[in-house]
Amino acid sequence: MMRPGPMRFAREGIPFLAIFGALALLSGYFFWPVGTAFGLLFAFTLYFFRDPERQAPSDPGLLVSPADGKVLKVESLQDGPLYPGPYRKISIFMSPMDVHVNTIPCDGTIKEIRYHAGKFFVASLDKASEENERNSIILDTKDGKRVAFTQIAGLVARRIVCYAKETRRVTRGERYGLIRFGSRMEVCLPMEWPVLVKVGQKVTATATALARMY
User: Fold this and answer.
1) pTM, to two decimals
2) Tell me, what's the pLDDT at 132?
């Protein structure tokens, strides 16, 4: 059994923690019910921005999940804006209770990053894939295969964070971004790679294998 690693916290949560912590202390001094409310917000923010250490599978031939959440769809498609030709797409929904730090699904070189401004529909809806604000990374593996993965904002999530840079080499499990407060992640991969997850399955960033890379 894999033991959980040490807990970290995403730095994007620090301003929220500072504000809610200060408000909890100040308002609690004068009127404790308000202080309690801000204290609960502080506790939720601490929980939301948790960033646990994850361990990837020992098999380097596995494509891992870039996000925590639940598998919404596994599709076989003929063509798309991120993937010319037949490909598979795995859609993952991240609820506000999931870890929202995103990680790289496989080793490779970032070929392109595409950002699209958009709307903020509920992330579990299919139309969120095409109409919501999103940020896509197109990555080439060492074998010349293409993997594309997209952070999609949701109804409440209004901030996509991405640290990745074009032309940079990245490694599986490397942290590269975050989406605040409920969102969606989509992974596009070669049609011939066997998918190892099914609809409704809970997945964990870095630790859960999505597919085998052939």
Assistant:
1) 0.83
2) 81
